[in-house]
Amino acid sequence: MNHSAKFAVFAGRASVPEAVAQLGLVQADTDDDPNVGFSARYEAATPDGGWLGANTFLYGRGLSLEDGSEYAEAVAERDRSLRALRAGALEPSTIGVRHMNLPTSGGVRLGWQWAALRDTPDSDALITHVAVRVDRGYFDKVLFSYPVLNDGIGRGAFVDFLIEWHRAVQSA
Hints:
Blueprint: H1 3-6, E1 19-20, E2 23-30, E3 38-45, E4 51-59, H2 72-87, E5 93-103, E6 109-118, E7 126-135, E8 138-147, H3 151-171
Antiparallel strand pairs: 1-2, 2-3, 3-4, 4-8, 5-6, 6-7, 7-8
């Protein structure tokens, strides 16, 4: 596999965005395994001392899918990720599972398969959102997490991150 293919849509490590929706790039990795592909970690502190984190993944599964989120394969990817999160959480609670359409500039709607999980009923619980779509022929998956105490900031930051991440993937 050549170097640029390892970075999926990005030409190389230097072309991976250093910041997406106020979250800064912490790490970017590639793997020859098509089920792993490209991954990046973004993080930010919140004004109240909390944090936001996003793990992004771009990977192929040998499928020829056009851009979008309506595919059964995108739903299956979302559900597979939700099951993995539930398996690793103590007393998990599913917050929601659905298809969401986000407004973008120019009136275009951006579709994502979405699910969210709260990992414990405790006040120090972690909320993790899973969002999946197909972009440029790759599964584009985002896991966006934050402490439940940052839910007011986290939900808006999650939506902003999805919109900006999609824009970065499309323009790379």
